[in-house]
Specification:
The protein is globular and about 75 Å long. It is built from seven helices and three strands; from the N terminus they run ααββααααβα. The termini are far apart. Helix content is 77%, strand content 5%. It is mainly alpha-helical. 30% of the residues are buried.
């Protein structure tokens, strides 16, 4: 069933941000509103120029605009470049899958989600930038794939439930990786403090 991973992970995210996130965190309200907007808009479609797209694409695009409008020029250009790389990887995967699907060895959502996660981790150090590059790259890639199929008269709605599935799988992997990185940093910090304490005792 398409949309299963999306609804599952998006509702978990919304419940966590609404009820469990620190109420003084400035990101709490913004994340809760965006997640709810994407969940509510996902089933509906709209025609924009040559594209048929789900309304969730507009909610995601608005989120990207909000997050990038105050970035410095250099940071914005690097984010644009990395999202462009992810876009090309996403569209290339779908094109290869379309013409030669035999190499897709297991669930395509897992394969593509893992590829997007790996590229985001490889290209950015900050969690926020990884999320932005991943989301914008995947959305642009889906729009580009829709435009290519439109040239051949194949209907394809961008930001469909299948797209939302793999996007949220990739975001879930990214957030899990961030938790692991934070745990490693805390453990490394405590180890260093312990070593320094022992050195001070011996001196």
């Amino acid at each position: 069933m398409e949309g299963l991973y999306f609804y599952w992970l998006a509702w978990i995210g919304w419940v966590w941000t609404t009820f469990f996130m620190n109420k003084n965190n400035p990101l709490r309200l913004k994340w809760a509103i965006i997640l709810l907007a994407v969940i509510l808009a996902a089933p509906y479609t709209v025609d924009v120029f040559i594209f048929e797209m789900h309304l969730s694409a507009l909610a995601i695009a608005f989120f990207i605009f909000l997050e990038t409008r105050r970035k410095k020029t250099g940071s914005f250009l690097y984010l644009f470049l990395t999202s462009f790389i992810i876009m090309l990887a996403y569209t290339s995967f779908l094109m290869f899958e379309l013409f030669d699907p035999i190499w897709v060895l297991f669930d395509r959502k897992i394969m593509l989600g893992a590829a997007g996660f790996y590229l985001a981790v490889l290209l950015h150090k900050e969690r926020q930038d990884r999320i932005l590059a991943l989301i914008s790259g995947f959305l642009q890639g889906d729009l580009l794939f829709s435009a290519i199929l439109w040239k051949f008269n194949f209907p394809y709605a961008a930001a469909s439930m299948g797209f939302m599935d793999l996007l949220f799988i990739s975001l879930g992997l990214l957030l899990a990786w961030s938790v692991i990185e934070s745990m490693i940093a805390v453990m490394s910090g405590s180890t260093i403090n312990q070593v320094e304490g022992e050195e001070q005792k011996t001196s």
